[in-house]
Design a protein that fits this description.
This protein is mostly helical. It contains 4 helices and 3 strands; from the N terminus they run ββααβαα.
C-alpha cells in the first residue's frame, strides 16, 4: 500500500511510501516490540497484523516522510495497549461461580439432571 507523505519543505510536493514494504522490512522488530508489551508470540503477531490492516484500510497522510516507521510503531503500540486493556477487563469480570454467590453452576449435558 502506498501512502502519500507531505514533505515539510513544500506543501504541494508529495512522496510515495510503501507501507507494505515498511512492514515487511521491519516485521521482526515490530513483533518483538509487541511481544515485549503483550507477553506472548501469538498476540504480538496479531497486533502487528491488525495494525497493518488498520493502516491499510485508512487513508493516511503524514507530514514527514522520515517518520513513517515511527507512525507504524505507534500503531503497533496502540494495538498492544488495546489488547492489554481487553485482558484487564476480562480479568476484572467475576467468574460465573462468583456471580452466583459462591454456588457452582454446572451442567453435565444430560437431560433431566
Amino acid at each position: 500500500m502506498e501512502v502519500e507523505l507531505l514533505s515539510g519543505g513544500e506543501p504541494t510536493a508529495r512522496e510515495r511510501v510503501d507501507l507494505a514494504e515498511i512492514f515487511a522490512a521491519h516485521h521482526v522488530g515490530l513483533v518483538r516490540l509487541a511481544l515485549l508489551m503483550v507477553g506472548d508470540q501469538a498476540s504480538a503477531e496479531d497486533v502487528v497484523q491488525d495494525a497493518y490492516t488498520r493502516i491499510h484500510a485508512g487513508r493516511v497522510t503524514l507530514h514527514d516522510p522520515g517518520r513513517a516507521l515511527a507512525y507504524v510503531r505507534s500503531a503497533v503500540l496502540n494495538g498492544c495497549r488495546s489488547t492489554l486493556r481487553r485482558r484487564a477487563v476480562r480479568l476484572r469480570r467475576p467468574l460465573p461461580s462468583e456471580a452466583a454467590g459462591g454456588r457452582v453452576l454446572a451442567h453435565d449435558g444430560r437431560h433431566g439432571t
